Amino acid sequence: MIDTVALGGTEVSDTDPAMPSSPPGDPASDPEPDGGFSAAEKLIGVDPANKAPHTSSAAATFMLRYETNPQRREQSERHRGGALVWLGVGLVAAIIAAVVIIAVASSHAMGASCRGGINRYEPPTKYQSTGNGPWTATYPCRNGGSKTVRVPAKQVPGGG
Q1: What range does the domain containing 145 cover?
Q2: Residues 99 and 120 in one domain
C-alpha cells in the first residue's frame, strides 16, 4: 500500500527517496544500530567544534533530542560538553587579548612617545630652530620618552 499526500499541489509518496522512511534517530534507520558513531563521523564532528563551538554544541543538543541509541547519546553529550569547554577557552583567550591590547594602548606604546607628561622640573634637553622659523624645545617626560614643543625665542638660552 502506497500512501500519497498532496502538499501545495505536489504529490509526495512515502516511497519518495527525498523523504526519509523513518524519523531521524529511529533505530531502524541507523546503519549501525548497536554501535556508536564511526571514526569518520567523529572526525567530521571535531572540525566544526574547533571552529564554531557554540554552533556545534547547539547541534549536539538538537541531536540529543532525537537520539535513542545510548552510546550515541553519550558521545553526543561528551561532544556538547567539549564544545562548550572550548567555547569557554576561546572567551577567556579573547578577554586576555583585549586586556593586553588595552594595556599596550594605554601605555602609549602605540604612537605617543611621551609617557606621564612633561617633567617641568627638568630643563629641556635640546633647543632647535630651522632657519628663521620658530624655536622648539625638547623636554623629558616623567615616565620615559620626550616631547617637543614650540617656545618663544626669548626663552632660548643665548637669546635665540
Answers
A1: 114-160
A2: no
Tell me how far apart the alpha carbons of residues 87 and 71 are, in angstroms, rounded to a whole number: 24
The domain total for the chain is 2
Backbone angles phi, psi at 129, to 5 degrees: -145, 140
13, 78: one domain = yes
Determine how many CB atoms are found less than 10 A away from the CB of residue 118.
17
CA distances from 73 to 42, 61, 157 (A): 13, 10, 84
If asked whether residues 101 and 118 sit together in one domain, one would say no
* pTM for this prediction: 0.43
Whether residues 90 and 22 fall in one domain: yes
- Count the alpha carbons within 13 Å of 132 in the hemisphere toward its beta carbon: 0
pLDDT, tens digit, for every residue of 36-86?
777 777 767 666 666 778 788 888 888 888 888 888 888 888 888 888 898
